[in-house]
Design a protein that fits this description.
With 279 residues, this protein is an alpha/beta fold. The protein has eight helices and eleven strands. It is 29% helix and 20% strand. The protein is globular. Bound molecules: adenosine-5'-diphosphate.
């Protein structure tokens, strides 16, 4: 064993005098200046994690911040489609340039690199995790106030690697009422605690629907328990989003920047304050 450097954060030796975990964070590209990184996580795919990531990106951009989205959901990439971005990624010897939306949100996604975006990505975990690290290291993000990471779904190996490799300032947990919410939140909370990453709060998607005729709120999946669950963990509920055909069509048409609902306005403001943005 080499001589002790007394700096546990850079040392990989598992010796008896270790006082703190090794820092596994990858360095960002030399031409990136990213102030804050937020992970958006969920227990499984299809609960609206990408929708929430895109909505938060739009709302934070509207508040005047420089926003980027790293689409780490490699097997289900949907960020470019929601923003209607099809541009090819160009590069230089320093790295890849992230394409921008109409309003200037930068993004990197595997869908922007595939020849045919409809072709499924069938990669094993380590390749997926390696791609996410590359998006972090090889993308020339430039100046970014908030980089939102649409994390791979679940709490397995791949999201864990993302958690370890990127310097996350906090996570937002997205769930839907038909899931075993307390279990999902518990697992995500465990993962975040292990890495000392604060949980910024919970978003419940597909919470309810509104009858288009009488305006009555219908709890399609039964009553929501998100408030009690959040309280049990000491987290905030950042927002509840109904099943809303307009949201689905904004994503399908690539026009999410035209978002005109206020479901996540409070969430964006809470995140702004928790990160100390604009101070
Ligand atoms: P995930 O990222 O968790 O896999 P997505 O955000 O891609 O999930 O959502 C899956 C699909 O469901 C998308 O087509 C999306 O537009 C649609 N969707 C998600 N949430 C809502 C909602 N609240 N109302 C209507 N459609 C929704």
């Amino acid at each position: 064993m080499s001589e002790c450097t007394h700096n546990c954060s850079t040392c990989s030796a598992n010796c008896s005098s270790r006082k703190e975990p090794q820092d596994l964070h990858e360095p960002a590209n030399a031409k990136s200046n990213i102030k804050h990184v937020i992970g958006v996580v969920s227990g499984k795919g299809g609960v609206g994690k990408s929708l929430v990531t895109c909505m938060l990106a739009v709302l934070l951009q509207r508040k005047g911040y420089k926003v980027g989205v790293l689409d780490a959901d490699i097997t289900g990439p949907s960020v470019p489609k929601a923003f209607g971005v099809k541009s090819e990624v160009t590069g230089s010897e320093d790295g890849m340039f992230p394409p921008e939306t109409e309003k200037g949100i930068k993004m990197m996604s595997v869908n922007l690199l595939l020849e045919d975006e409809r072709r499924p990505v069938i990669w094993r975990g380590p390749v997926i995790a390696g791609t996410v690290k590359q998006f972090w290291k090889d993308t020339i993000w430039g100046d970014i106030d908030v980089l939102l990471v649409d994390c791979p779904p679940g709490t397995g190996d791949v999201p864990l690697t993302v958690f370890q490799s990127l310097p996350l300032d906090g996570i937002v947990i997205v769930s839907s009422p038909q899931e075993l919410v307390s279990m999902i939140v518990g697992k995500a909370a465990n993962m975040a605690n292990m890495m000392n990453i604060p949980v910024l709060g919970l978003v419940e998607n597909m919470s309810y629907a509104v009858c288009p005729d009488c305006g009555k709120r219908i709890n399609i999946y039964g009553d929501s328990h998100i408030l009690e669950i959040a309280q049990g963990f000491g987290y905030d509920v950042l927002g509840q989003i109904p099943l809303d055909a307009k949201l689905a069509s904004l994503c399908d048409n690539g026009t999410i920047e035209e978002l005109d609902s206020d479901y996540l306005d409070i969430a964006a403001t809470v995140i702004e304050h928790r990160l100390g943005l604009g101070e």
